[in-house]
Design brief:
The complex is a heterodimer of chains A (445) and B (490).
Chain A lengths: L3 H5 L16 H39 L4 E10 L2 H9 L3 H19 L8 H8 L2 H11 L7 E7 L2 H8 L15 H12 L3 E5 L1 H5 L14 H32 L4 H13 L4 H15 L7 H26 L2 H9 L4 H30 L2 H5 L14 H6 L5 H9 L4 H32 L4
Antiparallel strand pairs in A: 1-2, 1-3
Chain B lengths: L1 H27 L11 H38 L11 H20 L5 H5 L5 H10 L10 H38 L7 H41 L2 H6 L3 E2 L10 E2 L2 H32 L2 H16 L2 H20 L13 H26 L2 H9 L4 H30 L2 H6 L17 H9 L8 H35 L1
Antiparallel strand pairs in B: 1-2
The chains are: A mainly alpha (445), B mainly alpha (490).
Chain lengths: 445, 490
């Protein structure tokens, strides 16, 4: 780096080379630049990982409360005379409610806790419980006279109070919850009557109306997603594998093959919303398939996933060494037999890994589902029957999350985060299966 | 579901064909398989393919064609007077279709008898009542022509379905019989089966082409329809985006420029976040990191690419937006009106794009031959000097390609902007303003109860066309650059 002529010029002390052990200014500068450059790299990675951590933390912090809810535990005995008395009255559910309140009062008194409440306060806390009680005893007449412990979900406001979404400072008296009710809630919590329990209803339930965030669950849309993934798997695995086998093993080098290859690499990069437009125009406008049906969603996602599966399948077919094919051909197998009997089974782990990753991608895709109508309605129940699962309108997990995020009530935001945790749990499981498959069966030739 | 049973029947015929074909060939050879040209199962496979493939093809074609034919016949029967002035024939046909499926479900639920549903002089009030009870959305009271059309629609569809079932089963049986008749020892079954399988493989590979054709056709036809209702010049040069909600055009301003501006602005913000971070991460991972750090950090970064975009959208709406509001909102600097803004969406999209930039650049930097680095070290350059002056210039075309691919992702990204960028289309330079993008408007124009014949809904296809052309151009260009670059060093 240093110029030889400069070195030989006397009277220029700055240019003379000092000890090899002491760095000169220029070397220091260069080394500093080196350190800085390396630090930029580390900083970039740290920032990237930091974003990942922030994302994970905010998902877990915001979504975890969804999985618990406040429930009221009451052991309640209804005797036969009480039942008959209640049934003989004009307002039957009111009578059941009064009996329940009496039982609750008794329980609090037994523990020596002073709490005053009336029927309307209980209604604000628990909703209309009389009807539930009556329905329970109508269905289980043999339980009359025996102690039954009820676990009743508290209203979403009370739930919010427990999770810190509603606080004493911000609460405004309304017909949903009064500030004075919170004293009662505290008293009940102290008595252990109200407690947090795991919210199975969120995992198993269906979507609720816009005014009932507490009752909304993700179960029905998990089923919708499941049917969609079934369609994607059944269509995209055989078609993708067949296409890859043709392109990798049989296709002659000609214009048609080139056209297919260019098409596949372009389709892999087409925005997903364009596939939604395709689905809307072809499957719904042209073929009149039912809107919002998992069948249509599955078809659209199949077209979207095919390029991914084809690309990964081709890679794993290419990884099988030619000696396998040559050996098969050498003992008299036809080309088709060599591929289907030898190459394909050896490539199978790679193909399955690619398929699972493609399915995971399809499972999280939202935009095309919006266009085929999987939002804007309330998926209230499970499909009844196998065929209905494909053709009846249903939601899918990402579409359900979007629906919740688009609603005004903040209670639904919590559900959306909870839904994301469920979705990510599925994706994580699928990816782990893919990794295990790869680790376990991958062969290095 | 008759279709389900039809599929099962064809499968059963095919399976039977396989078993019988195999047996017949073996029997013809007197039980000695050495007398056969091919392995016995190929004779079975021959009969199976001949039974199943043509039958399923016929079924698919029939299912596609039948509704069109039926709709044509029925719409020809609707009297002119039945189409109200403000409605199109398409709307009436939609009503007919709804009524027909309503009749089906009413019959299925036992609210109407099959005879009542098909009776020509049926009581309209009673039918409407039954339809409503069956959970079908019926607009007011159905009119007599619509009911009659729906009844003839049902009748024709039922006849068609019956004919289809008969034709498909007949074809399957005929195919199986043909395959069985061929099962003689001299028949070259393996060659026939293999060329059949080969044809199926080619058909599967052609689905990629069909998909592209489907995309292009569905975009082109609807875009042409849109430009018939709304001048193309106004669409491409309009500075104002204000669709009217009445649904019949007229007062709508549908200029694409504010949407394009929003799209590009958000993409630029996203790339400003993703490119430096992704590039430096790639440089560090490929040039500095020890194998252990690399094996941990690279997959961790790639997790960011595997997270569904709806998660990022929610993250933008509920976490990043409020966070930015606290700093730049009215309580802070006062630049921001609401949590949804260009900055919110751009930032989050940038996070999503980091792994795209880093993985692709990583590959490309790794492809630079080691000899070039060694030459530079030999001249006394430090590692960072080598990277900056030798490796990066050599990798530049590939990195540009990677950035272009990331840009095309950013332009086509939907969920983040739908949730994070706001809904107002405006031309503004302030990155803290809410803006909207092409993709977000496609979603908002096509969801809901839009009438597909109105310019307000059709504009979404023109937007989709714009998006498709832009991203396709970017992709082709980027892939071209990357491939060119690879060839240089291979």
């Amino acid at each position: 780096m240093t110029d030889a002529t400069d070195m030989s010029t006397p009277g220029n002390p700055a240019k003379t080379r000092g000890s090899l052990h002491a760095q000169d200014a220029r070397t220091k500068r260069r080394n500093a630049a080196e350190t800085r450059f390396k630090a930029y790299g580390i900083a970039a990675i740290v920032i990237g990982l930091f974003f990942l951590v922030v994302l994970a933390v905010s998902i877990i912090r915001a979504g975890a409360p969804t999985f618990t809810r406040a429930v009221v535990d009451v052991e309640f005995t209804l005797t036969q005379p009480q039942l008959e008395a209640a049934e003989s009255q004009l307002f039957k559910t009111k009578a059941y409610q009064d009996l329940f309140i009496a039982a609750l009062q008794e329980r609090l008194d037994a523990r020596g806790i002073e709490a005053e409440f009336d029927a309307t306060a209980i209604e604000r806390l628990l909703g209309k419980i009389g009807g539930d009680l009556r329905a329970f005893y109508a269905e289980n007449p043999e339980q009359v006279g025996q102690p039954v412990s009820f676990q009743l979900p508290a209203s979403s406001r009370v739930d919010g109070y427990f999770k810190g979404r509603v606080s004493r400072e911000t609460i405004q008296d309304s017909r949903f919850l009064m500030a004075s009710d919170l004293d009662l809630v505290d008293a009940l919590a102290e008595a252990g009557v109200i407690r947090n329990a795991f919210n199975w209803a969120f995992l198993t339930g269906a979507d609720a109306g816009v005014d009932n965030p507490g009752g909304a669950g993700i179960g029905a849309s998990v089923v919708g997603s499941f049917f969609m993934m079934l369609v994607v798997l059944v269509l995209s695995l055989p078609i993708g594998v067949a296409a890859s086998i043709y392109l990798e093993e049989f296709a002659p080098k000609n214009r048609f093959t080139d056209l297919i290859e260019v098409n596949i690499s372009n389709l892999a990069a087409v925005p997903s919303i364009v596939f939604g437009i395709l689905g809307l125009a072809v499957f719904i406008q042209f073929m009149h398939l039912p809107q919002s049906a998992p069948l249509v969603g599955g078809l659209v996602l199949t077209l979207m996933t095919l390029p991914t599966i084809i690309i990964s399948t081709r890679a794993s077919l290419k990884a099988v060494p030619p000696s396998i094919r040559d050996a098969a051909l050498g003992v008299g197998a036809s080309k088709m037999q060599a591929v289907f009997h030898h190459v394909l089974p050896l490539a199978m782990p790679g193909i399955l890994t690619g398929t699972i990753i493609g399915l995971a991608q399809a499972l999280g895709e939202t935009a095309p589902l919006l266009l085929i109508g999987m939002v804007g309605f309330v998926a209230r129940g499970y499909p009844d029957g196998l065929m209905a699962g494909f053709t009846e309108p249903n939601s899918a997990m990402p579409a359900q999350i979007y629906t919740w995020a688009a609603r005004a009530d903040a209670g639904f935001y919590e559900k959306a985060w909870g839904g994301i945790i469920v979705l990510l749990a599925f994706l994580l499981t699928m990816n782990i299966i893919a990794i295990i498959l790869r680790r376990r069966f991958e062969r290095r030739w | 579901m008759p279709l389900f049973w039809l599929v099962l029947i064809v499968c059963a015929v095919a399976a039977l064909g396989f078993v019988l074909g195999r047996q017949r060939a073996l029997a013809a050879a007197g039980g000695d398989r050495r007398q056969l040209h091919s392995l016995p199962s190929y004779y079975g496979a021959n009969a199976m393919l001949k039974a199943a493939v043509p039958a399923f093809l016929l079924m698919i074609v029939w299912l596609l064609v039948q509704p069109i034919v039926v709709a044509n016949i029925v719409s020809g029967d609707i009297p002119q007077g039945a189409v109200a002035d403000n409605a199109s024939l398409g709307l009436v046909m939609a009503e007919v279709r709804r009524t027909a499926s309503g009749l089906d479900s009413a019959v299925a639920q036992g609210l109407l008898t099959a005879r009542q549903a098909a009776a020509p002089a049926a009581d309209i009030g009673q039918i409407t009542e039954a339809l409503k009870e069956a959970g079908q959305i019926v607009t007011g009271e159905i009119t007599a022509p619509v009911l009659q059309a729906a009844q003839s629609y049902r009748g024709l569809s039922a006849t068609g379905n019956l004919a289809m079932a008969a034709a498909v089963i007949a074809l399957a049986l005929a195919g199986a019989a043909w395959g069985l008749a061929q099962s003689a020892p001299a028949f070259r079954a393996r060659n026939v089966v293999e060329s059949g399988i080969r044809a199926l493989l080619i058909a599967a590979a052609s689905i990629a082409i069909l998909t592209t054709i489907g995309i292009v056709l569905s975009l082109v036809f609807n875009t042409i329809e849109f430009f018939r209702l709304y001048p193309a010049w106004d669409f491409f040069t309009g500075l104002n985006w204000a669709p009217s909600f009445s649904g019949r055009g007229g007062s709508s301003d549908l200029g694409v420029l504010p949407l394009l501006w929003g799209t590009f602005y958000i993409s630029i913000v996203a790339l400003a976040v993703a490119v430096p971070i992704g590039l430096f991460a790639a440089i560090y991972l490929s040039e500095y990191a020890s194998p252990r750090v690399r094996s941990v950090a690279k997959p961790m970064l790639e997790v960011l690419a595997g997270i569904p975009t709806i998660v990022y959208g929610l993250f933008a709406l509920l976490t990043v937006g409020p966070l930015l509001m606290r700093v730049f909102g009215d309580d802070g600097l006062g630049w921001m009106q609401a949590g949804t803004a260009v900055m919110t969406a751009g930032l989050v999209m940038g996070i999503m794009l980091i792994p795209f930039v880093s993985s692709l650049s990583d590959d490309i930097i790794n492809a630079v031959p080691q000899a070039m680095r060694d030459g530079s070290y030999g001249l006394g350059a430090t590692k960072s000097e080598t990277i900056r002056q030798v490796v990066l210039p050599a990798a530049l075309p590939g990195i540009v390609g990677a950035v272009l691919l990331a840009a095309s992702r950013a332009i086509g990204e939907t969920m983040i902007v739908v949730l994070g960028a706001g809904a107002a289309a405006r031309l503004s330079l302030n990155p803290f303003d809410a803006m909207t993008t092409v993709t977000a408007k496609i979603v908002s124009q096509l969801t809901g109860d839009a009438d597909f014949a109105s310019p307000e809904a059709l504009v979404a296809f023109a937007l989709g066309m714009t998006l498709f052309v832009i991203t396709l151009g970017l992709n082709v260009f980027a892939l071209f650059i990357v491939r060119k670059y690879r060839e240089q060093y291979e």
